[in-house]
C-alpha cells in the first residue's frame, strides 16, 4: 500500500480541524448533561425526594378493638373473642397444592372456601398470607402446630371475632356486625380508611349499626417501608389507635332472657320500661335468630329459612312492628274527653251493643251491649259504644292531639334499626296520603284504636308509662357510653289533670283486679305488686254483615294470618308505679286470653327481679304456672355451637 | 511495504512497550470501572454476588485483552480490518439465523462461557474498516461520490442487520459512529447536510407508518418514544421505568443519600438497576457530586483519546482513535440522556459501569486498539 506523502500534511490539518469540531460538540453535549444533572439533583431535588419517600413509605392501619356491650348489670352482651384463622403464604409453601392436600388431611376444610383461597393465592403477591379457613377452633390449631414441618407456609393467626354470648336474646336490640360491603361504602360520603381493610366488620343492624361511630374506635397506624411490590421491609414507627367505646345498656339480660323465653313460639313483641326514667329493661321480639350466624357468614339455607318464615324472625317487631292498638287506645280517648271537660267519671252512656252513625252500624264487641256504662266500666269491660259516643263529640283532632302527648305517632329516639313512627291520623293526613276526605266513620273507628291508628309495642309501653307517671317520659336504651352516664329519659309533667289520670289508672286497675275486668284472669294477688292494665284485640280483617249474621267465628277457627292481634299494656305496682309493660302477640286471638297472661308473667318477673313466688298468682293458676316456670327455666338462647358451652 | 515506513528504531519493542502505554488512560478506565464495582456491590444489597465479582473478573480479563491488543503493532490491526469487518458481518448473519431472543429481539449468540453480542463487536470493526479505508484513500478522492458511496455501504450493511434484530439503539449508534468517522476523514459538508435532511424525512416516514401494515418499527419501540415524550401518560406501564429512574436520580440531591442507602434501588423501585439504569443508582447514592465526577472521568477519557489522536501522524491510528472515542462517547451520552429523560429508553448500557460482559469486552478491545495506536505511533 502506497502512502501519499504529499497529502499527509493537508489531510492531517483538515482532520485536526474536524476532530476539534467533533470534540467540541461532544464537550458541549457533556455540558448539557451536567446542566441537566444539576437541574434534577439540585433544583428539583426536594420534589424527587418527596416522590421517593412516597414510593417507599406506606401507612398500614391497625384496626382498633371494637367497643363491647354489657347489660345494666355488667353482663356481657357483645364481646370480642379471640378467634383463629389459618393462612397460607405462597412463597413459604412451595408446592401450594401439595400443602393444601396435606392440610386437608389434618383439618377439615370447606371446599368452597378452599376454591376461593386457591384463586386468591394465584392473584396475590407471593408473600401475602391468604386465609384458607376462618373461625377454626383451638383443636384444629393444635393439630396444625403438631404437623408444622409438613405444612410449610401454613400459619394459624389469632384475631378478634365479635361474639354474642346471649345470642338470640339480644339479636333485635344489638343486631350484628358483618364485613363492609360495597353498598355500605356507597352510602358514606367519606368512608373511614379502616373500612377499606379486607374483612373489616361494621355494625349492620341495631345498636351495632346505630352506634357504629362509638363502637368502632380510631385506627392506629404503622408507617412501614415497602419495596416495589409492596412487601413490608421494616416498620418505621407506629401510632396506637383508640379502641371503641364500651356501651352499657339499660336492659337487664336476665329479664330479657325471660321475656324471649315467654314469647317463644309466638310471633310477638314485648317491652318493659321503667316508668320513672324511661329505662328499657327488656325489649324483645319473637321469634328471634342467632346473630352469631351473621358474623360468621350465614349460609344460604339458614338465611332462606329466616326470610321464608312467616313469623318474620328478622323483624324487630317491638320497635318496627306497627299494629292497630285496639282497645289499649281507649285510655287516650278517655283522657282526651276528660281533658276537654266532655264527661265526668260518673257520666254514663247507654250501650245497646251497637251505635248507628250516619246510616252505618258500629258494633260493640259484646253483641248484647253493656247497658249504662261510666268511665271505669267502659275501660274495665272495654265497652266500644262508650268510646264511639265520646269520639263523635270530641272529633279526631282532639283524640290525635292526646295520643301525641302520650307518645304515639312519634319516632322514639333509641338506637335500634327501623324504629317506626306509627300513625296518629288527622283530617289533613288523610287528604294528603289517601286523597280522600275524612268521614265520621273514621273517627268512630279510631276511637277504639282501629282504622288508621297504628302504634308499635314500644310506643304502647311509653303511652302506658306516661299514664302511670304523669310525666312525658321517653325511652332510653343506652345507660352508659365508656362509663359516662347518658341523659335519663325523665320528662316534664304531661300537664294533665292529676284527677283525670287517677281516674284512668283506677279504671285500669279494675281491668285486672275487678271480677268483671277483662284481664281479671291475669291478675296479680301479691300486695304491693298489683298491676293495672288494659286489654286490646285488634282486627286485621273486616267482619261483614253476613258473617256477623251467621255468628262471628271464633279466632281458633280462622287461619293464623286472619286471627286478631292480641295486645295488653299494664303498669305496676299500682300504688307506686315502677314499670310499664306492653305485649303484642300477632294473630294471637284475644287480648285478655293471649296477651294478658304473658304481660302479667313478664311484669312479675320484672318486679321481683327474677322468678316470682307462686303465691303472687291466683291460687287456681299456680299448678299451671309452676309447670310454665319449670319449662322456661330450661330455655337457652341460640348462640351458635361453640359459644353454648361457655354460656 | 508500508510497515517499513515506521521508524522501527525509535518505536519501543518487546516488553519495553509496556512503559509506553498511555498509563493515565489505563488509570481512568480503572477508575470508571471501579464506580461500576462499587455500584454493583450496592445494588446487590452489599454483596459481591451476583454482579460485582463477575464484573471484576471481566474487567481483569478485559485489561488483559487490552494489553495483548496494545502489544500488537497497529499496522497489523489495520491489515486485519477487512477480515474483522467481514467476520462481524458473518456473526450478525449468524444471529439472524441462530441467535437467542431476549427482550423481543435477537441479540446474542451463546458461546457457553459468555453471550456474544455481534452488534457490539461491529461498533469497533466498523470503525476499523472505515479508518483503514480512509487511510488508503487518496485525500483528493475523499469527497467524490463513488468514494463516498463505498463507506456509506460499509455502514449501512451492518446497520441494517442490527436493525433487523431489532435493535434500534445500536443501529443508530453505528450510523452516528460511522458518520462521525467519515466527517473526521474530511468528507464534504454537503453530504452530511443531505443525510440529515434525509434522516428527518425518514423519522417523519416512520411516524407516518404507525398503525399501517408497512409499519417500520415495532410497537414497543413506538411506545418507548411515546413514553419518552410524556412519561406521566402511563405511570404504571412503560412510563414506570423512566419515572422511577428520574425519581432516583433527582432524590440524590447534592451529596446523595449515602452509599447503599438509596431507597429507590434498595427497595427495587428502579428497573434494570444493575444494567442500563445503574447511573440512577449512582446519582441517588452519591448525588450530584458523584454523578458529575463520573461524567468528568468520561470527559477525561475522551480528552486523552483526542489528544493521543491529534499527536499521532499515522492517519489510520488517528482516525481509529477518534472513532473509538466517539463510540465511547455515544455510549455514555445516550445512556445518561436516557435515564435523565432527555432521550427515549433505547437499551444502551453505561460503558464500563453497567453489568454486562459483551459491552465491557468490546470496549476494552477498542481501548486496546487505542493503546496500540499510542504505543506504535510514528516518532
From TrEMBL, chain A:
Topology with respect to the bilayer: Single-pass membrane protein
This protein's UniProt keywords: Carboxypeptidase, Cell inner membrane, Cell membrane, Cell shape, Cell wall biogenesis/degradation, Hydrolase, Membrane, Peptidoglycan synthesis, Protease, Transferase, Transmembrane, Transmembrane helix
PANTHER family according to UniProt: PEPTIDOGLYCAN D,D-TRANSPEPTIDASE, PEPTIDOGLYCAN D,D-TRANSPEPTIDASE MRDA
GO-annotated cellular components: plasma membrane
Residue span, Penicillin-binding protein transpeptidase domain: 269-602
Subcellular location field: Cell membrane; Membrane
Lineage per the UniProt record: Bacteria, Pseudomonadati, Pseudomonadota, Alphaproteobacteria, Rhodobacterales
Name of the protein in its database record: Peptidoglycan glycosyltransferase
GO biological process: cell wall organization; peptidoglycan biosynthetic process; proteolysis; regulation of cell shape
Alphabetized Pfam families for the sequence: PBP_dimer, Transpeptidase
SUPFAM superfamilies on file: beta-lactamase/transpeptidase-like, Penicillin binding protein dimerisation domain
InterPro entries: Beta-lactam/transpept, Beta-lactam/transpept-like, PBP_dimer, PBP_dimer_sf, PCN-bd_Tpept, Penicillin-binding_protein_2
Source organism (scientific name): Pseudooceanicola nitratireducens
GO molecular function: penicillin binding; peptidoglycan L,D-transpeptidase activity; serine-type D-Ala-D-Ala carboxypeptidase activity; transferase activity
Primary localization class, coarse: membrane
UniProt domain Penicillin-binding protein dimerisation: residue ranges: 62-236
Domain of life from the UniProt record: Bacteria
Transmembrane segments annotated in the record for this chain: 20-39
UniProtKB/TrEMBL annotation, chain B:
Protein location: Cell inner membrane; Membrane
Single annotated GO MF: lipid-linked peptidoglycan transporter activity
Annotated catalysed reactions: [GlcNAc-(1->4)-Mur2Ac(oyl-L-Ala-gamma-D-Glu-L-Lys-D-Ala-D-Ala)](n)-di-trans,octa-cis-undecaprenyl diphosphate + beta-D-GlcNAc-(1->4)-Mur2Ac(oyl-L-Ala-gamma-D-Glu-L-Lys-D-Ala-D-Ala)-di-trans,octa-cis-undecaprenyl diphosphate = [GlcNAc-(1->4)-Mur2Ac(oyl-L-Ala-gamma-D-Glu-L-Lys-D-Ala-D-Ala)](n+1)-di-trans,octa-cis-undecaprenyl diphosphate + di-trans,octa-cis-undecaprenyl diphosphate + H(+)
Entry-linked PROSITE patterns: FTSW_RODA_SPOVE
The family this protein is said to belong to: Belongs to the SEDS family. MrdB/RodA subfamily.
A GO biological-process term: cell division
Biological source species: Pseudooceanicola nitratireducens
Membrane topology term: Multi-pass membrane protein
Root EC class: transferase
Pathway: Cell wall biogenesis; peptidoglycan biosynthesis
Residues that span the membrane, as ranges: 20-44, 56-76, 82-101, 145-163, 172-192, 286-307, 319-346, 352-370
Family matches, as PANTHER family: CELL CYCLE PROTEIN, PEPTIDOGLYCAN GLYCOSYLTRANSFERASE MRDB
Gene that this polypeptide is encoded by: mrdB
Protein name per its UniProtKB record: Peptidoglycan glycosyltransferase MrdB
Record keywords: Cell inner membrane, Cell membrane, Cell shape, Cell wall biogenesis/degradation, Glycosyltransferase, Membrane, Peptidoglycan synthesis, Transferase, Transmembrane, Transmembrane helix
Amino acid at each position: 500500500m502506497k502512502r501519499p506523502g504529499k497529502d499527509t500534511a493537508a489531510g492531517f490539518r483538515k482532520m485536526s480541524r474536524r476532530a476539534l469540531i467533533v470534540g467540541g460538540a461532544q464537550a458541549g453535549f457533556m455540558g448539557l448533561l451536567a446542566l441537566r444533572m444539576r437541574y434534577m439533583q439540585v433544583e428539583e431535588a426536594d420534589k424527587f425526594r418527596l416522590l421517593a419517600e412516597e414510593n417507599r413509605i406506606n401507612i398500614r392501619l391497625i384496626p382498633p378493638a371494637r367497643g363491647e356491650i354489657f347489660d345494666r348489670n355488667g353482663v356481657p352482651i357483645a364481646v370480642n373473642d379471640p378467634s383463629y384463622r389459618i393462612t397460607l403464604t405462597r412463597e413459604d409453601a412451595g408446592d401450594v397444592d401439595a400443602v393444601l392436600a396435606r392440610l386437608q388431611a389434618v383439618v377439615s376444610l370447606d371446599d368452597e372456601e378452599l376454591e376461593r383461597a386457591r384463586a386468591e393465592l394465584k392473584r396475590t403477591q407471593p408473600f401475602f398470607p391468604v386465609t384458607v379457613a376462618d373461625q377454626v377452633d383451638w383443636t384444629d390449631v393444635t393439630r396444625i402446630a403438631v404437623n408444622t414441618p409438613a405444612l410449610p407456609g401454613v400459619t394459624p393467626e389469632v384475631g378478634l371475632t365479635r361474639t354474642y354470648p346471649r345470642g338470640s336474646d339480644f339479636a333485635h336490640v344489638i343486631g350484628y356486625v358483618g364485613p363492609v360491603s360495597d353498598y355500605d361504602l356507597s352510602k358514606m360520603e367519606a368512608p373511614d380508611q379502616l373500612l377499606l381493610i379486607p374483612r373489616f366488620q361494621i355494625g349492620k343492624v341495631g345498636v351495632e349499626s346505630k352506634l357504629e361511630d362509638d363502637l368502632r374506635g380510631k385506627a392506629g397506624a404503622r408507617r412501614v417501608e415497602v419495596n416495589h411490590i409492596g412487601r413490608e421491609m421494616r416498620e418505621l414507627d407506629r401510632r396506637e389507635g383508640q379502641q371503641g367505646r364500651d356501651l352499657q345498656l339499660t336492659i337487664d339480660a336476665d329479664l330479657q332472657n325471660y321475656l324471649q323465653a315467654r314469647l317463644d313460639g309466638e310471633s310477638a313483641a314485648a317491652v318493659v320500661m321503667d316508668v320513672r326514667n324511661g329505662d328499657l329493661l327488656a325489649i324483645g321480639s319473637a321469634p328471634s335468630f342467632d346473630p352469631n350466624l351473621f358474623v360468621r357468614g350465614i349460609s344460604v339455607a339458614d338465611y332462606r329459612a329466616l326470610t321464608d318464615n312467616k313469623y318474620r324472625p328478622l323483624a324487630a317487631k317491638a320497635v318496627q312492628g306497627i299494629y292497630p292498638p285496639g282497645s289499649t287506645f281507649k285510655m287516650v280517648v278517655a283522657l282526651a274527653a276528660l281533658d276537654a271537660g266532655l264527661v265526668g267519671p260518673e257520666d254514663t252512656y247507654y250501650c245497646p251493643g251497637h251505635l248507628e252513625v250516619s246510616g252505618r252500624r258500629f258494633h260493640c264487641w259484646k253483641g248484647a251491649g253493656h247497658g249504662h256504662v261510666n268511665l271505669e266500666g267502659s275501660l274495665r269491660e272495654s265497652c266500644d259504644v262508650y268510646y264511639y259516643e265520646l269520639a263523635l263529640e270530641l272529633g279526631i283532632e282532639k283524640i290525635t292531639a292526646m295520643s301525641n302527648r302520650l307518645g304515639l305517632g312519634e319516632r322514639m329516639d333509641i338506637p335500634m334499626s327501623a324504629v317506626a313512627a306509627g300513625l296518629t291520623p288527622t283530617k289533613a293526613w288523610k287528604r294528603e296520603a289517601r286523597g280522600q276526605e275524612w268521614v265520621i266513620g273514621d273517627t268512630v273507628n279510631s276511637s277504639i284504636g282501629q282504622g288508621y291508628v297504628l302504634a308499635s309495642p314500644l310506643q304502647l309501653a311509653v303511652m302506658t308509662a306516661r299514664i302511670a307517671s304523669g310525666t312525658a317520659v321517653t325511652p332510653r336504651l343506652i345507660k352508659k357510653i365508656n362509663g359516662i352516664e347518658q341523659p335519663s329519659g325523665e320528662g316534664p309533667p304531661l300537664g294533665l289533670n292529676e284527677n283525670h289520670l287517677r281516674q284512668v289508672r283506677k279504671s285500669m286497675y279494675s281491668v285486672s283486679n275487678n271480677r268483671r275486668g277483662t284481664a281479671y284472669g291475669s291478675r296479680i294477688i301479691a300486695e304491693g305488686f298489683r298491676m293495672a292494665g288494659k286489654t286490646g284485640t285488634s282486627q286485621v280483617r273486616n267482619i261483614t254483615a253476613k258473617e256477623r249474621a251467621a255468628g262471628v267465628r271464633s279466632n281458633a277457627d280462622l287461619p293464623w294470618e286472619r286471627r286478631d292481634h292480641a295486645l295488653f299494656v299494664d303498669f305496676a305496682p299500682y300504688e307506686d308505679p315502677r314499670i310499664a309493660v306492653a305485649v303484642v302477640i300477632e294473630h294471637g286471638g284475644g287480648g285478655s286470653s293471649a296477651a294478658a297472661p304473658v304481660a302479667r308473667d313478664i311484669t312479675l318477673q320484672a318486679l321481683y327481679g327474677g322468678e316470682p313466688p307462686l303465691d303472687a298468682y291466683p291460687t287456681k293458676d299456680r299448678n299451671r304456672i309452676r309447670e310454665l316456670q319449670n319449662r322456661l327455666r330450661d330455655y337457652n338462647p341460640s348462640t351458635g355451637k361453640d359459644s353454648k358451652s361457655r354460656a | 511495504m508500508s510497515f517499513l515506513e515506521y521508524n522501527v528504531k525509535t518505536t519501543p519493542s518487546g516488553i519495553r512497550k509496556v512503559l509506553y502505554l498511555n498509563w493515565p488512560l489505563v488509570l481512568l478506565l480503572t477508575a470508571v470501572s471501579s464506580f461500576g464495582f462499587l455500584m454493583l456491590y450496592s445494588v446487590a444489597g452489599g454483596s459481591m454476588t451476583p454482579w460485582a465479582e463477575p464484573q471484576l473478573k471481566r474487567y481483569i480479563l478485559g485489561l488483559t485483552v487490552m494489553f495483548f491488543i496494545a502489544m500488537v503493532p497497529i499496522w497489523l490491526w489495520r491489515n486485519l480490518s477487512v477480515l474483522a469487518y467481514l467476520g462481524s458481518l458473518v456473526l450478525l448473519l449468524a444471529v439472524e439465523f441462530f441467535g437467542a431472543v431476549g427482550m423481543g429481539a435477537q441479540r446474542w449468540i451463546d458461546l457457553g462461557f459468555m453471550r456474544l453480542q455481534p452488534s457490539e463487536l461491529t461498533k469497533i470493526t466498523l470503525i476499523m474498516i472505515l479508518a483503514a479505508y480512509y487511510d488508503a484513500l487518496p485525500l483528493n478522492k475523499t469527497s467524490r461520490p463513488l468514494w463516498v458511496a463505498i463507506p456509506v455501504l460499509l455502514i449501512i450493511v451492518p446497520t441494517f442487520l442490527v436493525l433487523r434484530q431489532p435493535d434500534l439503539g445500536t443501529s443508530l449508534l453505528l450510523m452516528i459512529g460511522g458518520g462521525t468517522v467519515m466527517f473526521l476523514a474530511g468528507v464534504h459538508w454537503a453530504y452530511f447536510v443531505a443525510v440529515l435532511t434525509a434522516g428527518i424525512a425518514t423519522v417523519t416516514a416512520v411516524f407516518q407508518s404507525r398503525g399501517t401494515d408497512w409499519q417500520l418499527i415495532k410497537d414497543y419501540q413506538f411506545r418507548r418514544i411515546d413514553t419518552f415524550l410524556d412519561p406521566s401518560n402511563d405511570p404504571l406501564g412503560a412510563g414506570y421505568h423512566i419515572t422511577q429512574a428520574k425519581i432516583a436520580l433527582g432524590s440524590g440531591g447534592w451529596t446523595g443519600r449515602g452509599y447503599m442507602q438509596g431507597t429507590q434501588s434498595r427497595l427495587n423501585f428502579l428497573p434494570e438497576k444493575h444494567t442500563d439504569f445503574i447511573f440512577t443508582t449512582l446519582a441517588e447514592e452519591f448525588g450530584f457530586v458523584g454523578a458529575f465526577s463520573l461524567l468528568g472521568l468520561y470527559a477525561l477519557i475522551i480528552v486523552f483519546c483526542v489528544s493521543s489522536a491529534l499527536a499521532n501522524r499515522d492517519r489510520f491510528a488517528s482516525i481509529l482513535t477518534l472513532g473509538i472515542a466517539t463510540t465511547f462517547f455515544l455510549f455514555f451520552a445516550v445512556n445518561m440522556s436516557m435515564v435523565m429523560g432527555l432521550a427515549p429508553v433505547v437499551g444502551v448500557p453505561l460503558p464500563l459501569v453497567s453489568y454486562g460482559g459483551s459491552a465491557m469486552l468490546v470496549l476494552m478491545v477498542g481501548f486496546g486498539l487505542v493503546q496500540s495506536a499510542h504505543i506504535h505511533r510514528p516518532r
